[in-house]
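User: My collaborator and I are trying to settle a disagreement about how two of our proteins should look. Neither of us wants to argue from intuition anymore, so we agreed to look at predicted structures for both before our next call. Could you fold the first one, then the second, and keep them clearly separated?

Assistant: That sounds like a sensible way to settle it. I'll keep them separate. The first protein:
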Amino acid sequence: RSPSRGLGDVYKRQFQDRVDPFPSKIAQEILQKEFGPKLDDIFKEIDLKVVASASIAQVYQGTLKDNNQKVAIKILRPNIDKIVARDIKTLNLLIFFVGIFSKFFAKTLRDLSDLLKSVSNSELDLLLEASNAGKMKENLKELEGIYVPDIFWQYSSSKLLVLQWLEGTPFSNIAQINESKFSKQKIARNFVIAYFNQVYVDGFFHADMH
């Protein structure tokens, strides 16, 4: 029997992969701009039905033409860099007015603003995400039960990431997990060992454990 879930759990799941997607027409335009006339030579097909949509990017499924490999195509939201920059400016304006009444609270918000700016610079470069995934794949290659998808570097850019498609079950789908034939105890053990290796051995860990 699944445990009861509050509204907070529902909202968290929605923020993970259910943000309102931008139109598929825009995604098609981005693909055309990134690949140009080579688009049809690279992909056998691209399904423009959104698989997942989050705050800075959304994902589609495609098939490579040369080897029929299924891939995930992650595309940055259009103008997301300008949106983030605008939000940071708004936060800094709020900090200015808060500082009139509370220097301490203003400093706390300023620290948050600085962190947001630093994180956004890295989050908005999908080549950096690809590099991190490659490093994690190398770090975890000897561990049982852990697999990091391959990156197709030749098709990826700072605004678009192409990686190996893997079928799976989200942690939020308790019913499907309970119905699966896999050992939950073994999966949990593998994850704990992988996480301890990331934190205590490599000092390089995945921050989106969902």
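The second protein, kept apart from the first:
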Amino acid sequence: MSVTEAAVELAAYLLARAGLPGLFLLAVAELLVAPIPGEAVFALAGFLSSRGAMGLAEAVLVGTLGNLAGALIEYWLGLRVARPALLKLGKYLMIGERDLEAAEEFFRRRGALAAFLGRFVPGVRSLMGFPAGMARMNPAVFAAATFSGSLPWNAAFALAGYALGEKWSEVLRYSSYLDLAGAAALALAAIYLAAKLIKRRRS
């Protein structure tokens, strides 16, 4: 059994036993880089909603609030832990305070859009809180963008699970394609940021 399969079985057990509180905890864990595919969690929640175990709208809302809680924990860790550590270790990683200032400027200008769109990219969606916290993005703006981006994503998979019924796990057949898209997006973002840093140093 793979790690993902084990995580899905654990999610199914927790949702069946704990209902909406379990969904909230799973949604928090997903954002803290746990090996729990959010697509499966919300598809399963949609299936349970079709059986009357929970309301569909309630499941989407509670799960989205869980995502928000997880993202805010990431934001705090980025601000209080990752940023000071990066400043101390920056000379070994070729990252200085000026680079962090450039990141802050980026998040001031485009952080809301980045946080919103990042919620639709697998891989990226589980990490956005860290750079936002490190760059000291406005927390209220970050929270609003995270909630706004999480809601339609979660609703889409919950509706799919509701419609598929007992075949809700079919969504996992396509999760590998979503993972590939997320990996490609991360690679492009890394190349873009590296190019910006190199250009800034040269200037």
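Some points you might bring to the call about the second protein. The mean pLDDT is 80. The helical segments are 3-18, 20-31, 38-50, 56-93, 97-118, 129-134, 139-164, 175-202.
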